[in-house]
Amino acid sequence: MSTAREDLLAAGLAVFDRDGFEGATVAEIRSRARASNGSFFHFFTSKKELAGTLFLEILQTYHAAIITSVDDTCGASDGVARLIHAHLDWVVSNRREARFLFEISRSEWGEEVRGAQRTENSRLTDAIERWRAPLLARGELLPMSPTLFFSQIIGPAQIFCRAYLSGRHSGDPREQVETLIACAIRAVVAPGAPKRTGGTS
């Protein structure tokens, strides 16, 4: 059974998705969550704080999906494939959350969560590096910074995801997965490294 705080966060997500941050109101969020004014302000000092909390919780969920997609049993090509599958699957399965994470502007409230966001991003980087480091040492992955590596893996997929999330393109971005994987492998996997083993979970 959900708690009042969870109800408010779920209501906030729905209202932000429909009205954007600027158009959303505390009154509408409270109404959707069936929460009193006192209940709202018991958990959040403002709409801005609710948005920041929601952003961080969704970011953690997204990062968990990415992190758990690879482990030390994955080779270079297989790991690249799993990372791309994990990103695309999460976006399609969590479309409203993905729209909030990637599409809704944070100019009004993002600064307040910037430090926590950097911490979460560092955790993601550390987790991916634990998988990547042995492959770099064996020469199976091309040497590049963690940021460049991740941008080569997720960046092209994200172009399709943003078009899908904004409604500019109605097709499922997973339809492009094999081409995205092939391109990412050419970008980051060293020539002669072991081929994909077929795992995509």
Structure description:
Residues 2-62 form the HTH tetR-type domain. One of its GO terms (molecular function) is transcription cis-regulatory region binding. Residues 25-44 bind DNA. Keywords: DNA-binding. Pfam families: TetR_N (PF00440). The protein has 201 residues and is mainly alpha-helical. It folds into 2 domains: 1-45, Arc Repressor Mutant, subunit A, CATH 1.10.10.60; 54-188, Orthogonal Bundle (Tetracycline Repressor, domain 2). The chain is 69% helix and 0% strand. The chain is built from 9 helices and no strands. The longest helix is centred in the middle third of the chain and has 24 residues, at 114-137. The chain is elongated and about 60 Å long. The model has no long low-confidence stretch (mean pLDDT 93).
Topology:
Layout: H1 4-23, H2 26-33, H3 37-43, H4 47-67, H5 76-93, H6 95-102, H7 114-137, H8 146-166, H9 177-188
Helix pairs in contact: 1-2, 1-4, 1-6, 4-5, 4-6, 4-7, 5-6, 5-8, 5-9, 8-9
Summarize the structure.
The chain has 201 residues and is mostly helical. It has helices spanning 4-23, 26-33, 37-43, 47-67, 76-93, 95-102, 114-137, 146-166, 177-188. Helix 1 (4-23) packs antiparallel against helix 2.
Structural class: mainly alpha
- The fourth-level CATH homologous superfamily of the largest domain is Tetracycline Repressor, domain 2
Shape category: elongated
Proportion of residues in helical segments: 55-70%
CATH level-1 class of the largest domain: Mainly Alpha
CATH third-level topology of the largest domain: Tetracycline Repressor, domain 2
Order of helices and strands: HHHHHHHHH
**Biggest pleated sheet:** none
Summed over residues and divided by their number, the pLDDT gives a mean of 93
Distance between the termini: 30 Å
**What's the gyration radius in Å?**
19 Å
What is the count of distinct domains?
Answer: 2
Task: Classify the beta-strand content into a percent band.
Answer: under 5%
Under the CATH scheme, the architecture of the largest domain is Orthogonal Bundle
Number of helices: 9
